[in-house]
Specification:
The complex is a heterotrimer of chains A (274), B (449) and C (457). Chain A has 12 helices and 2 strands. The longest helix of chain A has 32 residues. Chain A is mainly alpha-helical and 274 residues long. Chain A has 2 domains: 43 residues, no CATH class; 207 residues, MetI-like fold, CATH 1.10.3720. Chain C has 2 domains: 124 residues, no CATH class; 241 residues, Orthogonal Bundle (MetI-like fold). Chain C contains 23 helices and 3 strands. Chain C has a 3-stranded antiparallel sheet. The longest helix of chain C is centred in the middle third of the chain and has 35 residues. The chains are: A mainly alpha (274), B alpha/beta (449), C mainly alpha (457).
């Protein structure tokens, strides 16, 4: 490379811009294992005390139950989003449907437009179906809100499958459904995996819907659990404890992210977060 | 999968509603309590104790009765009120709720609660011992809807060491509450005093005066300090007293300009506020009688009576008066309870209101007694703070009105206060905005002065 | 998996099949689509429609949701008194009469009241009248066979009572009949008026929109929202995103992958933890204030302590999430630039800045437009992050439209949930969102994204 393309100044610049994130995440991990004197940043001793909540429910309550509930929520959302999106995605990618353009335009709009502003309307639907204050209601709502995204992503994967595969299957006399099941689905497996991981992450991190739509439910999830902890004004702020619970909460996310990073990179481009 | 899940949930809901009717002597009563931290657990534990008592009484009568009490508590108010309102609309509300008395207005109009007077005798023990003014606070539209759960007063606290440091004699400090009550010592005198503390280096800047950090009935006290009335006694209509609102907003603006409180004080953290209050870092601050329990139990305040003076909220000008607001919580029976459950729930509430049981809550959370008898319960009588607060503050307290439209007014008042205090709009504009908003929403049901 | 990125950037160039024969509709397609359609209808379309309807009502906590009831209360009578109800009429309507007569006994017997108790009532009070229900209840309690439970007693008392006050009726006819019974002298016009006013449920109104159109607060909210969206987008989602993408384009692979992972962290971190991390970062005794103090700079709670720092915090914390969206899209677009072009410019002696300006930036036009449009919508309607951090404060200085809609309708201190007004505010967002979406769809040549299915047999 020429002198014009020296790398070093760039890395310095990059590091400065990225410093806040590096600091926040660095200390997030650091603070869970250490204690610092009051008013100081740098820790002066190692401790495991912040992790006591894992086996001692008297610290913050039963964190495992909340984790279990979060797991149920996240897995249920996969169960809703992935099958339904892969069916609908195939239909809009390959089959001739009335109002197909209109439907796709609708999906596009909904995909871009986070529906949290419609919460009042959503509440009414839950009220009429008797699902308010139940985890099933939260799962259905969250799953539905993710559907436009899921369908759009899956449509992209189906579009990329060469149509000769399908043609060959149909000409061999297999039904369209069989072709879909036997030949096409295996082709979009990467898409299914990516969407599953994404749905899991989204469900695991969800906070607003469980808090608003199932406040009295016994199924308190980790996000609500953690925020409740931070809200209590009597305790005195113990950021190290919050961070430890937070790291515990985020661990599955990090693991999944590391395992599926490249696939997620693609899909995040279509993500709906601000 | 979706369909099956939905159907199962519906069936479950149906089954559970049938089950209630079938087993007549086996009840599950759910209790939700709002705004209740670690000190206020007796709000629902009292119901549990009452259930135990009722089961024993039934056994003595030779009946078999099992009551399971399920409780849930919220530390904040917004979540709690939202959860209850939405749950009621969705038909899965609890049977008993503990909330502020001002909720009786909207909730009774919407049919979310039932008048408890149909379910209990107010002329029998223990309800006949409850202070009549508290019963009034639990009444709306000529009916008694709830049973008072606690009472309180809101207090202006003063740092005795800081007052001494600016040269106040102990006589002056001792007589402060009386001078405030008589209207001689006003809010502006307070600002001068705390400003002096800051100027002399006793306190840090912006630490002279520390009001409540979030919305609360407390701010209506300052409206009253400047001569405001919340509702008109004769017509029962809400009153927007523009002069009083101006006086009140101007007071907070002036305090900010003097540098004794920060312009962004609202919305700062409770935790920090408690810590500073308990450590004597403020000159004057206002809170509730119940904060005493938090400071002494959790924030390490040891010698309260020698370090903290307490008084009514001073008057702001000649039009106003020194005052304090009591904001009793009430037990309410919801319309989600079946007729049978409502009967049990109301009886549980009545039993939980006996002086001995209520005193547990009063003393643990530093709230005031709901009845004369309760003040004679030894646990309560021995408590110096409650005795002192009852004597000095309780006689001058009043409550916010029970009016279903009060929430609109309250929200507008606080929005205006925030706007003026942070300097987003001028005091005049903020008051004009409150006037327009309230007038637009309530029309003839509000009196503008 | 480039296809989805292509679709998103709107630069897809697909060959269009010219298929003149109109193929028949696929039944299988409809079946495959059905579950999605069902859920979307239930949780997307229905809420939109409901929001549209509620926006034109005064629905709130006190009206309740669903059908209201009809009830005459003392407060209502007082209000009506101001509007012309005569005192005589009001007194007549408010009257309560309790008469112990045959009819009452018969009603009570039918209602299943203990016969022993009833015969005591008949013996003791036959022919008597009371006008205070509480006094009557007290009398009843004195009887030997009085039920132990207060509720049974009040219910028994009600069989002898004629009154209309505070009784909830499900339909106007029942209330009208009762009113005529209690106050026969009141004219039927007056009764109709009272019945109409006694409705507790929501009514249709345009007041929400009038209020939004006239109050000063609206302008302030629009200003805040515009500032929030513009600053977050400009500085972070596009500005920082583009900067990172270009810089990482030039760095060696390990550096690139390290920093892109780092910048993705805010996006995958659960919101609640992310909010806690920012609190730790900005609060007193947190990272920034401690560092600032060591440099002698003003040190306070930056998230809530001053208007300027609250805005900076709010924009940064949203922007750090948004930057990765731009980063990913721009990186994808950068990789699509033919390397030959870049090499050629290097041979020509262009420096890096010239290369970026002449070759890279012109190619970024569409991705920038896409990120801008897409994220404008997201930012307009996102409020969770703000709610969990500044919560619109200090004062209401960082309150944006979506947050205000949410707090008005669903979450505020006084518990006075104004669903109608909140829905009106949400509806404004829906309309803005729809209009913007339609513009974007035209802009990004929607037709090409949804070209006819490839196979139709």
């Amino acid at each position: 490379m020429t002198k014009n393309f020296a790398i070093f100044p760039l890395i310095i610049l990059l590091t400065i811009v990225s410093l806040p994130i590096a600091v926040m995440y660095g200390f997030l991990i650091l603070d869970t294992f250490t204690d610092a004197p009051p008013g100081e940043l740098w820790p002066d001793r190692f401790t495991l005390a912040h992790w006591r909540f894992l086996w001692d429910p008297s610290v913050v309550g039963n964190v495992w139950k909340a984790a279990g509930n979060s797991l149920i929520l996240a897995v249920s959302i996969i169960v809703i989003v992935v099958p339904i999106s892969s069916l609908a995605g195939y239909a809009v990618s390959r089959l001739n449907l009335p109002f197909r353009r209109f439907f796709l335009a609708g999906i596009m709009v909904m995909h871009a437009f986070p529906a949290v502003t419609l919460l009042i309307g959503v509440f009414f639907v839950l009220k009429f179906t008797g699902l308010y204050n139940t985890m099933i209601g939260v799962i259905l709502v969250k799953g539905s809100l993710m559907l436009p995204f899921g369908i759009w992503i899956m449509k992209g994967f189906y579009d990329a499958v060469p149509w000769e595969i399908e043609m060959a299957g149909v000409q061999d006399g297999a039904s369209r459904l069989t072709v879909f099941r036997r030949l096409i689905l295996p082709q979009v497996k990467p898409g299914l995996v990516a969407l599953s991981v994404f749905a899991f992450l989204d469900g695991w991190g969800e906070y607003l819907l469980p808090r608003i739509l199932a406040p009295g439910s016994d199924m308190e999830v980790l996000s609500v659990f953690l925020n409740e902890l931070v809200q209590a004004d009597q305790l005195g702020y113990d950021f190290n404890l919050f961070k430890s619970v937070g790291v515990f909460y985020t661990l599955p996310v990090i693991i999944l992210f590391v395992l599926f990073q490249n696939r997620l990179m693609n899909i995040f481009g279509g993500g709906t977060k601000g | 999968m979706t369909f099956t899940a939905t159907r199962t949930a519906l069936t479950a809901a149906l089954l559970s509603s049938v089950a209630f009717g079938a087993a007549a002597e086996d009840y599950t009563i759910t209790v939700w309590a709002g705004g209740s931290g670690d000190n206020a657990t007796y709000r629902w534990e009292a119901i549990e104790m009452a259930a135990d008592q009722m089961e024993r009484e039934a056994a003595v009568r030779g009946e078999e009765l099992t009551i399971t009490v399920e409780s849930q508590a919220w530390t904040g108010w917004d979540d709690f009120k939202q959860a209850f309102t939405l749950a009621s609309e969705a038909d899965n509300a609890p049977d008993i709720i503990v909330s502020g008395h001002e909720d009786i207005g909207p909730w009774s109009e919407a049919g979310l609660i039932v008048p408890i007077e149909d379910y209990v005798f107010f002329d029998s023990y223990p309800l006949n011992t409850i202070y009549p003014n508290l019963i009034d606070v639990a009444s709306f539209n000529g009916q008694i809807w709830g049973i008072p759960q606690d009472a309180e007063a809101r207090v202006m606290y003063w740092s005795i060491p800081a007052l001494e440091a600016i040269g106040w004699s102990s006589d002056e400090i001792d007589s402060l509450p009386e001078r405030i009550e008589s209207g001689e010592f006003t809010l502006y005198d307070m600002l001068d005093a705390v400003k002096k503390m800051q100027d002399e280096g006793v306190l840090d800047a912006n630490m002279g005066f520390a009001p409540r950090v979030s919305n609360g009935p407390d701010y209506w006290q300052f409206y009253q300090s400047f001569g405001g009335e919340m509702s008109d006694e004769d017509s029962g209509k809400l009153v927007v007293d523009t002069a009083a609102l101006k006086g009140m907003y101007q007071f907070f603006v002036d305090a900010t300009e003097m540098g004794v409180v920060s312009g962004t004080h609202l919305g700062s953290e409770w935790d920090v506020w408690h810590q500073n209050a308990a450590s004597g870092n403020y000159g004057a601050w206002h809170g509730g009688t119940w904060h005493y329990a938090q400071w002494t139990n959790q924030f390490g305040l040891e010698d309260f009576f020698n370090t903290v003076q307490y008084s009514l909220i001073p008057a702001g000008n000649d039009a106003g008066r020194a005052n304090s607001i009591t904001h009793p919580l009430v037990y309410l029976v919801t319309s989600a309870a079946s007729e049978d459950e409502a009967v049990i729930a109301a009886e549980l509430i009545a039993k939980a209101s006996t002086p001995e049981i209520n005193a547990l809550h009063a003393v643990k959370s530093a709230h005031l007694a709901i009845s004369e008898d309760e003040t004679t319960v030894p646990l309560y009588a021995e408590n110096r703070w409650l005795a002192a607060a009852s004597e000095r503050l309780a006689p001058s307290t009043n409550a916010i009105p029970n009016n279903s439209d009060f929430g609109v007014y309250w929200t507008a008042m606080f929005d205006g206060l925030e706007a003026a205090w942070t300097g987003v709009s001028s005091v005049d504009d903020a008051v004009a905005e409150v006037e327009t908003t309230v007038k637009q929403a309530l029309g003839d049901d509000v009196i503008i002065r | 998996m480039s296809s989805s990125a292509d679709l998103n950037t709107g630069v897809a160039r697909k060959s269009r099949r010219s298929d003149r024969r109109r193929p028949r509709i696929s039944g299988l397609g409809l079946a495959l689509l059905a579950p999605a359609l069902f859920l979307l209808t239930l949780f997307f379309f229905a809420p939109v429609v409901l929001t549209g309807i509620f926006a034109f009502t005064d629905l709130s906590t006190s009206t309740g949701i669903g059908r209201g009831q009809y009830v005459v209360t003392p407060n209502l009578l007082r209000q009506l008194g101001d509007q012309g109800l005569t005192e005589d009429d009001a007194t007549a309507i408010a009257s309560v009469s309790i008469t112990i007569d045959e009819a009452g006994i018969a009603r009570a017997t039918e209602g299943g009241v203990d016969p022993d108790f009833l015969s005591e009532i008949a013996d003791r009070f036959a022919g008597e009248s009371f006008d205070d229900p509480r006094a009557f209840s007290r009398e009843l309690r004195g009887l030997p066979n009085a039920p132990r439970r207060p509720r049974e007693l009040t219910q028994t008392a009600e069989y002898f009572e004629t009154s209309v006050l505070n009784t909830r009726f499900d339909n106007p006819e029942a209330l009208t009949a009762q009113l005529a019974d209690v106050a026969p002298d009141v004219s039927s016009d007056t009764i109709a008026w009272i019945v109409d006013r006694s409705y507790t449920g929501a009514r249709f109104t345009t007041a929400n929109f009038e209020r939004l159109a006239t109050q000063k607060e609206t302008l302030r909210l629009i200003g805040n929202t515009a500032l929030y969206v513009a600053a977050t987008l400009g500085l972070f989602n596009v500005g920082l995103g583009l900067f990172l993408a270009i810089v990482l384009f030039y760095t060696p692979k390990p550096v690139t992958s390290f920093y892109s992972t780092l910048w993705l962290l805010p996006r995958i971190t659960p919101l609640v933890l992310y909010a806690i991390m920012w609190k730790w970062f900005t609060w007193e005794d947190g990272f920034l204030p401690i560092v600032a103090e060591q440099f002698g700079l003003p040190s306070f709670n930056y998230m809530k302590g001053s208007v300027v720092t609250a805005w900076m915090t709010m924009i940064s914390l949203n922007g750090f999430i948004g930057a990765s969206f731009g980063l990913i899209l721009f990186s994808g677009a950068l990789r699509a630039i033919p390397m030959q072009q870049l090499w050629a410019s290097e041979v020509d002696g262009a420096n890096r800045w010239q290369q970026v300006r002449r070759i890279i930036l012109p190619q970024m036009r569409w991705p920038i437009l896409f990120v801008t449009s897409y994220q404008t919508l997201s930012l307009l309607s996102s409020y969770e992050q703000i709610w969990l951090t500044t919560n619109g404060g200090p004062g209401r200085t960082t309150t944006v439209w979506a947050l205000e809609a949410f707090t008005t309708a669903l979450s505020n201190y006084t518990g006075n949930l104004q669903y109608g007004l909140g829905a009106a505010m949400a509806l404004v967002l829906v309309v803005v969102g729809l209009v913007l979406s339609i513009i974007y769809l035209r802009l990004f040549k929607f037709g090409e994204l949804v070209s006819r299915p490839k196979i139709e047999l």
